[in-house]
Amino acid sequence: MSSAAAQSSSSQPECIRLRGVRQHNLKGFDLDLPLGRFIVVTGLSGAGKSSLVFDTLHAEGQRRYVETFSAYTRQFLDLLDKPQVDSIENIRPSIAIAQTNTVKTSRSTVGTMTELTDFAKVWFSHVARCFDPATGEAVEDDNPRTIWEKTRAAHAGAAVIVAFRVARPANTPWADILPQLQRQSYVRVLVPDAAGALAVHRLDELAPDAASLASAGELFVAQDRLAIAAENQARFLEAVETALHFGQGQVRLFRADTLAPAGHYSRGLHSPSTGRTFRAASPALFSFNSPLGACPHCRGFGRVIEVDYRLAIPDANRSIDDGAIKCWEGEVYRSSLDDLRQFTKKKGIRTDVPFASLTPEQQAFVIDGEPGYGEENGKEWPKYWYGVKGFFRWLEKNTYKMHVRVFLSRYRSYNPCPICHGLRLQPEALCWRWQGHTLPELYSLPVRELLDLLAADPARPAPTADGARHSADLARDGMLTRLRYLNQVGLGYLSLDRASRTLSGGEVERVNLTACLGTSLVDTLFVLDEPSVGLHPRDIDRLIAIIRTLTDAGNTVVVVEHDEAMIRAADHVLEIGPEPGARGGQLVFQGSVPELLRSEASLTGAYLSGRRRLTAPAARRPVPKNHPALHFHGVSKHNLRDLSVRLPLQRFVALSGVSGSGKSTLLDHVIYQGLLAQRHHLVEDAAQIARIKCDQPLGDIVLVDQSPLSRTPRSNPALYAEAWDRIRELFAATPAAQAAGFSAASFSFNGGDGRCDHCQGLGYERVEMQFLSDVFVPCPICEGRRFKPEILAIRWHDRSVADLLQTSIDDALPLFTSEPGVREKLGALAEVGLGYLTLGQPLNTLSGGEAQRLKLVRYLAGFTTVSDDEENASPTASGTGGALLLLDEPTTGLHRHDVVRLLAVLQKLVDRGHSVVVIEHNLDVLKSADWVLEVGPEAGADGGRIVAEGTPEALARTATATAPFLRAALAEDARGTSVPTELLAAEAPAPYAATETLSIVGARENNLKNLTLTLPHRQLTVVTGVSGSGKSTLAFDIVFAEGQRRFMESMSPYARQFVEQLPRPDLDRLTGIPPTVAIEQRVTRGSRKSTVATITEVAQYLRLLYARLGVQHHPDTDRPVTPLSPAQLQKLLARLLITPKAKKAKHLYLCAPLIRGRKGHHQPIATWIGKQGYSLMRVDGRLLAVEAFEKLDRYKEHSIEVVVADLRALSGELGTPAAALTRALALGKGACFLLTPAGEVLSWFSTTRTDSETGESFPELDPKDFSHNSPRGWCPTCRGHGRVFPWMLEPDEDDENDPSARLRAFGIESGDELSESGTPCPDCGGTRLNRIVRAVKLHFTGKQPPLSLPALLAATPAELLAHLRRLDLDERGRRITQDIVPQIEERLKFLDHVGLGYLALERPTDTLSGGEAQRIRLAAQLGTNLAGVLYVLDEPSIGLHARDNRRLIATLLSLRDKGNTLLVVEHDDELMEHADHIIDLGPAAGRHGGELLAAGTPAEIKRCARSLTGVFLARGIAHPLLGAYRPVSPTKGKTPKITTRAKATSSSASHPSPFTLPSWLELTGARLRNLQGFDLRLPLGRLIMVAGPSGAGKSTLFRDLLHPAVSYALEQKSARVTGKAFVRDTGFAAESADAPLPFAELRGAHTFRSVIEVDQSPIGKTPRSTPATYLGIFDLIRQFFASLPESKLRGYTASRFSFNTAGGRCPTCDGAGRIRLEMAFMPDTYLPCDDCHGSRYSAELGDVVWKGKSIGEVLQLTFEEAVAFFDFHSQLRETCQLMVDCGLGYLTLGQSSPTLSGGEAQRLKLVTELARGLPSYTERKRGEPPRNLYLLEEPTIGLHLSDCERLIRVLHALVEQGHTVVVIEHHLDLLAEADWIVELGPDGGPGGGELLYQGPLAGLLRVKRSPTAPFLAEKLGKA
Question: Of 653, 938, 993, 1834, which is the most exposed, with the fewest CB atoms less than 10 Å away?
């Protein structure tokens, strides 16, 4: 470890520091949480535990990590609100494992959640064998040797003919085919006759009479005839190998004597008995989430959606007359009910009795219809009855109607797939078995059984030669590890195919916990919510061991918990209290467990130490043998098998047993659903029950499960307890209310006329913030009080209705002394410990424990009372049995103190005659029960029996799993003391010590060769190696992809689909990985529309700010738009209706916007429109009938409006325009518009956005309205470019906003009037936005005038921040800006930190230098304040000057010192010198790379002889590489100083003579952007380097000025051109109208043949782009193939040999070489094309060969091979040689462009441009080599030092050929090779643009102002 790394480790911060925590009820305390520890947070329910752990700690950890994603991605993620806290330091990325089951998709199973299916499919594909389902025989992959063995066994001694099949192509006669066979020396063929019988023919006899074969579609070519004998084995193997080759993988054997088939074999899996061919085993084949493996019918879901006839007849207790058939209740289909009555009358079936009482035959007649009904049997209506099923079959034929689709959706449900029967996999996958099991069969086994089966498997693959274990072995180990984890946390009873959506909250949490262990994440914050819920006491120690595994790996685990064993095992305990709700939120205790036990302030400590206890009842209710009970006999469901159970009634009964023993099945499927089914109610999945007997009648049957409460804020405790209606009546009964005419409805905030109209009674408005958390601001009208002022004026008990909603339940109870009904309902809330809640507290803000108890109250309120006076109680009359209350773990979320109150309520319920059955593991509940039934003895198949029953004391004496724990709890009561206070499962506290390394085993992704290595954590590691060696594959495709994917597993499935996740890499194992953040290389500088604001994401935040806070001004008058009343809008509408346009229109549609620019299919909104009775809607600007609506593209943005009324045909309640306008404004939330049938919007109407004077209304604002990349925001003339270009004048007939027409309106008639580089837009003046958006302004305090978005973007970062600090904000504005402004500040401050504070935010990025663009990108992504993550950076030094590079290195080191790990793909030698660790890959590129050459510190790398990087780091590149610099001849009396470093040694023949061509290229008065009017002089025929800081003006001078100027001179063929003529003739556009001429004069450019620029623009990124197509040589290759005699004979042209056009390309894959398999909700999968095998071409082109190779085979040549192959063609040969010279000889001609690395793509561009400069045929003939001007910008991007040396030689070779080469570069090794060097500076932006030096290299070293000289001198000193 380097000293820097050691220092960073020693100073590692050990705490997460929280200051001023004020979230929800938390009271602003400070807190330090130790890292790497197991921390328990406990306290009373509602005290604030979740507020601290989830809403503060987890929210901040997740938020900071998610901020590293793009703004686009963030808007889809489940973003948590930014917590109310002063500061949080040293936070880790956080993963929450909560007790909620939000999974809805059937694709998710226990196996997918834990990644077990991913390991299983890899393991199974290696160990399983294929069996033919028709015969049961094993199927094996054939090869010549296995074919020999099979043939010898079946035909030993017999003579056989080895043959291959030839099929005749459709358009090719046999006469063309047979001669080719003869030329290949074949003699005989077997030809089938019409009956299929074979006959042998000689080719020489058959060829002349080929017409006789016209009817034959195939024949078999005899490869050899031989006897099957040992001496002929070699001959047989050779013949079969050849036949397989020519037979496209298939070979046929025939008996020589009878020509009977003797075998049909193929490469691959082929059944010898049936001839069926099977796909080879691969992991994808065994994945139901892959298109390859999923059942094609159900797409891998295992279920299909079909009509469920139980939904059509949900209540069989009803008669047909009473509506038993629900689908025929309405008027629409009532005629079917009339039809049924006619047929039942004929059949004598009664319709006035319960449907359940009909005979099975009668029920079948009603449902199925007449036997054989249907057109095919001639039985049709009206003579025959079609049945309910026939009715639905008829409906299915009419699903093109929307109302039919809506109707059918009500009666559909999921059923098992009829093809795969729920197994999910396609049939071929089920042909594979291991030990007799298919993979789905293994998935169906309980985890415990599967673990035993795998662990006992003796067949383990042998180690490979290098000692690395086989990938199947590692996959098996991964499965065993995860299965053991599941078993450890008590989930051994689950099967891997168990759907995630069927798991309980506790099960989901524990499954997710094991999944997190399986991901091997480290340095992560894991937050758990009561993981012990649902876990038997005996399994708690296993759970603790699992948590210890996480902390031992260096993670921090924070658990909200009440379980005593969990608390005692913690390293650190926090208690939040002292009371719930507003009286809580304080940090009562923090410290160790012994300190907790001694704490007087801790309620938890009091219970754990024994100072407080919960004792069992002194006397239990007796349960004699003859006590009334509920009896179930013959019960079977899940693991319950023929069970009989007896439940005592009117008693408190508890069900206990280990997790998975069958308790929930017994409670839900047997007791609850069984009783409901007995009452003929529709149930989902009841158990099979032989008989149910109840000794006394039962009342209600109520199941209180763990399903979530309401998610709407409109529900509150008073409403939930059904007390609010009476309270509203009390307010309405007051004299003041009656005098004002108010009713009870007036006091409802959910409806009526009393609630606030603005917020609709919510009290707040929700401001959508897209990629930030939504903001909730108090309603500005009612100020959060929900009601209108006149309602709030009504007082009851001196309280308004809003005051009462803010009153706690405890304080409200005395107010209702005279209202027993209200008091009884609210009293139940107080009795279960929820008295601290306010009456109006939204239910979606409650904690888990609060919600659970409130749910109990919902059912208990009617059964209890707050009075302790038994006289006032009304117990159930004896013999009625009361209600049966079923509760599943009601102590969830409850502190032990809360459990005391809960038990008191449950006991009171039983006292009053009700029966209570609870599932519980809590010992306090079990010891308080009257009767306990233990289900067991174990889980899964080993459970499902009643192993003990009786009183708790009786159960404690048994040998069940619960008995010892219950025995101890009862003994504690007897002793009066608590459990000893030792730490039961805790370990000695240890210092924070995270896992030290990230381990990668067996990486085979792309070209990596089974790579195994480790990366040290919290260090700076550099991955280097030659370009294409596999660096990016390792860093991004493996490390980054896996780190982000594993973290993203914690996000919702919906959110994950929007995060671009790379495919899972091909590797055996990866462990110890923190969450990762990628900062990838971006060598391009954005599009024409990209600006500094957009690439820093500041634009996205400003758009959001303007959309939410901007004030609309009128575009013409600049007057702010003020709100208008409905009456004013009605006047505007009346004024509009009398205008000529309105009068002329036949229809005037009043439209209300419902959806604006939102993605989705939007079927629900269309359904809603139809239900409301509207017939028309407008979708994306197109009017259509509601019935005609079809689901939209869910991945595109859509806008939808409802047509409220046609003002030309008003009727009903919308009979007047005013009424229609009122309705439209209500639906459109204050906005609507008037539309003509032609689609023209006549006017908008808005309550807030209408100008009172002009009547012009403006639509509601959205962030997209401020984007110049969106049609909604951009200027319609320039389309958001800010400039107009010649191509814009090309008319577009399909575009209604044709920009060419708009330009002509501004007097611009021709593209000749515009510069190619663009002219400022005459419409928007360069601001890019439309007139309405430009008029939206932010208002500021003081004298600062309002500013539009373009005006704000014209500022520098410092100026913009100053403006934002002066925003004029109210409370709403402050809440909206609380997240936006800090995000902008963070980015802009970092921008200033990297020296770019001078940039205006509107600056186009295509005008930035490479270094400026790179620093902006780093500023945008390195600004997050994260710790403990792994940053993966791709060449961050590109484009940076040496001075800026040192800044970058300091930034990276500071990131490391914060506790982060950095993995940097880099070639920069200085950065490598500062690295802690270097990984060197190689030894070459492509398939020759992918090996680990060396790994270690920089010093160790330098000593490694095998490391190419080490060699160059140790010795560097000697300068000058050629031994001397070229001399520069003096001219015009000027004598530039020649470097003294080396004397010129080259002969005059090697260099262009100064007397044969002009010696200089001169540009005078250069003034463009920041260039300061200097004169530039460049010697011709020399290697010229251009240096200077980023932004100094280098690209401006050479790319934007010199290049077009020289090109103009060449067009003019002039030795001298002036800047004035240049601007006049080219239309060159300066930055502003008053800018000076870009230059004064250019001399000496006319002798160049051309200017060739090699820039950083991207190459083709589609799979159809290849190096050969990009270089342009593929056209030559195709032309040559077309010139071959065979091609001419067939009439093939060059286009026939293109894989992009029909005819020659493979028709199956359309020339792609692969097939894309698409699948809903899953990534696409690609497979090699089965027909062309990846060659891209049709089979007939394989016959056209050139030098023995077809066109497809030529594309598979490497460029090294192509040099020799094209030796006869100079241009092809030289182009391929250039590829070899630039180090790309290993690439193939047809390699897909997206597979190229960044360095490969850059060099390919270089070769392309160099090839353009090759001499033409005429120039070669005349011996006149061309002289070009080459302009290269940073060609070293992505190049290793060895590649840089090679590049230098290429550049020198160009100069030797007479070219002038100008290179803009920061790489010191290239600068050191300059014959002539130009430096601009001294800084970037306004501080640059000065010519600091031009001349030989040596002179630069003496320039004191040079920023480059010190670094260059240091470099040359090393050389």
Answer: 993
CA distances from 1209 to 667, 1146, 1149 (A): 60, 10, 10
CA-angle at 240, arms to 238 and 244, nearest 5° = 120
The predicted structure's pLDDT at residue 1725: 56
Structure tokens at 70: 């793009």
Other C-beta atoms lying within 10 Å of the C-beta of residue 1664: 15
* Residues contacting residue 833 through CB under 8 Å, at least 6 positions apart: 45, 580, 853, 898, 901, 902
| Cβ pair 1151, 1201 in contact under 8 A | yes
Task: Say yes or no to pLDDT of 1535 above 50.
Answer: no
Residue spans of alpha helices (H) in 1182-1271: 1217-1227
Q: What is the dihedral of CA 1776, 1777, 1783, 1785, to 10 degrees?
A: 50
> 1028, 1800 in Cβ contact below 8 A?
yes
Report the Cα 1000 to chain-centroid distance in Å: 24
More confident call, 761 vs 1294: 761
| Contact status, residue 320 vs residue 308, Cβ threshold 8 Å | no
What three-state secondary structure class fits 1473? helix
1658 phi and psi, to 5 degrees?
-75, 155
In tens, the pLDDT along 119-132 reads: 888 889 888 999 99
Across the beta sheet with 1231-1235, the strand order is 1182-1185, 1176-1179, 1197-1206, 1149-1159, 1231-1235, 1241-1246
Per-residue confidence band for 989, with pLDDT thresholds at 50, 70 and 90: very low
- Residues 906 and 896: beta-carbon distance below 8 Å: no
Q: Which two tokens stand for residue 1531?
A: 């001219």
Q: Looking at residue 130, what is its pLDDT?
A: 92
pLDDT at 618 over 90: no
User: What Cα–Cα distance (Å) separates residue 1082 from each residue in 1048, 1433, 1469, 1656, 1765?
Assistant: 24, 11, 20, 10, 36
Q: Is the pLDDT of residue 878 over 70?
A: no
Q: At residue 706, does pLDDT exceed 60?
A: no
Contact 1189, 1179 (CB under 8 A): yes
Q: From edge to edge, which strands make up the β-sheet containing 1641-1643?
A: 1574-1579, 1560-1566, 1641-1643, 1616-1618
DSSP code, position 687: P
Residue-wise pLDDT tens digits, 831-867: 877 888 899 988 877 765 567 677 767 656 554 433 3
The tokens for 158 are 């017999």
Q: Which residues, in sequence order, are CB contacts of 1412 under 8 Å at separation 6+? A: 1396, 1399, 1439, 1590, 1591, 1884
Task: Quickly count: other Cβ atoms within 10 Å of residue 1868's Cβ.
Answer: 25
Which pairs count as long-range contacts for 718-725, CB under 8 Å and 24+ apart, including other chains?
Answer: 718/805, 718/826, 718/839, 718/840, 720/843, 720/854, 720/857, 720/858, 721/825, 721/826, 721/828, 721/829, 721/857, 721/858, 721/861, 722/825, 722/861, 723/821, 723/822, 723/825, 723/826, 724/839
Residue 606 is predicted with a pLDDT of 93
1314 token code pair: 């515009």
Helix (H), strand (E) at residue 1013? strand 1011-1016
How buried is 860 (Cβ within 10 angstroms: 0-12 exposed, 13-18 middle, 19+ buried)?
buried
* Three-class DSSP category at 155: helix
Place of tokens 């013409």: 1116
Q: Where are the alpha helices (DSSP H) in 142-187?
A: 144-155, 174-183
Nearest residue to 279 (alpha-carbon basis) of 143, 395, 387, 432 = 432
- Rounded mean pLDDT of 1768-1793? 84
Task: Say whether pLDDT at 1054 is over 80.
Answer: no
* H helix or E strand, kind and range, residue 629: strand 629-637
Q: What residue spans of 640-796 are helical by DSSP H?
A: 663-664, 673-678, 717-720, 724-732, 735-740, 789-792
- Give the torsion through C-alpha atoms of 1087, 1089, 1092, 1096, to 10 deg: -70
Averaged pLDDT score across all residues of the chain: 83
Predicted confidence at residue 101, as pLDDT, reads 54
* Model confidence pLDDT, tens digit, residues 254-284: 999 999 999 888 877 877 677 788 888 888 8
